[in-house]
Amino acid sequence: MELRHLRYFVTLAEELHFGRAAERLHIAQPPLSQQIRQLERELGFELFHRTKRNVQLTEAGQVFLGEVQQIMRQLQHAIQVGRQTSRGEIGQLVVGFVSSAAYNILPTILRTFRSYVPGVSIELHELTTDQQLEWLREGRMDVGLLRPPVEENRFSCETIFQEPLMVALPEAHLLASQSDVSLTSLANEPFILFPRILAPGLYDLIISLCQQAGFSPKVAQEAIQMQTIVSLVAAEMGVAIVPASLQNLQRIGVVYKTVQEPTPKVAVAMIWRKNETSPTVLRLVEIVKQAAQQW
Question: Model pTM?
């Protein structure tokens, strides 16, 4: 039994006329009659009552029709799902992101991806850069948004967003009334930083900027997440140098100031496995790359 036999049967059952059914199927009437006879022999029961004037379904044919129609609907659904999956339009993704990405590019990525591919669900995890690398190695995550650099050649990594650094100060700080702040004026201030192992690229950049201004920062407290760093600044435990997008974190007790000295921009990169074959993952990568051209 082949799929065409079932298709011929359903068409004849709908038309109840060999001539019209053959026309719909774009075949001659005798081959259609032969195919239906062949199907009946294989099934072991008659599907149609045939007379010179009309064709009617047998009782067994009626029941068989209902089952076959269900099979055909399931087949069409399977074809549709397969096509959507091959185009990366259905499935599930696990995406990691550094906390600061939630205040710049992550909302835009999610909105854009949802508008193009509403059938894919995304499971989000807020992870530090080192955690994302570990999850990618273990196959627990598909795509990450982290702080470069990434030195492992098993991954593909592409910068998708860059922004300047700013100084976060307690609102009662003596420098809070200034429009901008020189790094040299922070030489004696306690700093709040995150451990270097979590994002060495950003950490080293902050340390380098301070050293270029003639001092090494006095680290009073370390925190894993950017929002925690900002909260500690609000608690007047120190100052911090943070990506500019942290201004979008509305935190009472903190003011943000531009830096007088020229500072390099810090980046957020998208990372995925270099040998990735999942159409869904590759579709996300493609959409993010396109969106990044507008930022």
Answer: 0.71
